[in-house]
Amino acid sequence: MSRTIFINGRYVPESEAQISIFDRGFLFGDAIYEVSAVIGGRMIDNDLHLDRLERSLRELGIPMPLSRDEILAMQKTLIVRNELDEGVVYLQVTRGSEDRSFDYSDTLEPNFVAFTQVKRLLDTKALKDGVKVGLVDDIRWGRRDIKTTMLLAQVQAKRHVKPKGCAEAWMLQDGFITEGASSTAFIVTQAGKMVTRPNSQATLPGCTRRAVLQVAADHGLQVEERLFTADEAYLAREAFLTSASSLVTPIIEIAGHRIGEGKPGPITRRIQQIYLELALNQGAV
Ligand code: PDD
Questions:
Q1: pLDDT score of 283
Q2: For residues 158 and 165, is the Cβ–Cβ distance under 8 A?
Q3: Which of 29, 61, 222, 236 has the fewest Cβ atoms nearer than 10 Å?
Q4: Residue of the nearest CA to atom 16 in ligand 1?
């Protein structure tokens, strides 16, 4: 089935969705994006994703291309038109198109594209059995809190760990884990505390992270927001990662070190279950 794509105010078949080669997203990576999960035709944590979209645009000085309500209506239209039951809605806003120059016109209008992708999110081997992660140096720029489309370091990170059977790469800076190439990193200490890095310019403030921290607070699970090293992670009782498209995914091995008993641990399972129940009951669409 050919998808319907949203592009600058129009809904078109994917074969007709075209953008200029002078688009600054294409030429400079001068663009931001968001990914919201869709389960049963409903978006998960979409308010948080739209908050972050607005923030990313503000940080880069790119105007909002539509109002929040208009964006939400457009997302819903895409889900309905593409009959999306399970998958993601992808949004991308670029600074706009004009002849190549680092500088840009004050009057430049953003390009706004959006599409749906079918993806199995719930009934996956990764959610059930957990995944392995590898380690790479974090070579990204200094404003990782902005969700830009400049993802080359992450593409390379995943490429390097894939041959070792790793579904994700955790990135290291000054001995500390920053985050996954496309997910937030969590460990559970031997004392049973969940640990994740505090938000800063060093990482993307994950929407799923935020929802999971709320779940932990509501259910009396202990959390520490602090830095942790790779060595601490190897000795963790459990580990997991979060993102819109991987939800709460258990980790069973980090850089060849078996985590806990080498299978998803009970705290991870609990968080996973509570998060999924909440997500499924959200009814955001
Ligand atoms: N990635 N950190 C990075 C570097 C990410 O790219 C992502 C998400 C996350 C998790 O954020 P959230 O919980 O808001 O999805 C953390 C998306 C899924 C992607 O690029 O496809």
A1: 57
A2: no
A3: 61
A4: 183
| Ligand 1 pocket residue status of 92, Cβ below 6 Å | no
Catalytic residues: 147
The 3-state secondary structure of 75-123 reads HHHHHHHCCCCEEEEEEEEECCECCCCCCCCCCCCCEEEEEEEECCCCC
The alpha carbon of 206 and the centre of ligand 1 are apart by a number of angstroms equal to 6
Q: Ligand 1 atom 4: the closest Cα is on which residue?
A: 182
Q: What is the pLDDT averaged over residues 67-92?
A: 98
SS3 52: helix
- Determine the distance from the C-alpha atom of residue 272 to the mean position of all C-alpha atoms in its chain, rounded to a whole number: 16
Ligand 1, atom 9, lies closest to the CA of 183
Characterise 8 by phi-psi region: left (phi > 0), alpha (psi -120 to 50), beta (else). Answer: left
Where does residue 13 rank: exposed (0-12), middle (13-18), buried (19+ CB within 10 A)?
exposed
What is this structure's pTM?
A: 0.97
Kindly list the strands in the beta sheet with 42-43, ordered across the sheet, starting from the edge strand earlier in the chain.
Answer: 10-13, 4-7, 111-118, 86-94, 31-39, 42-43
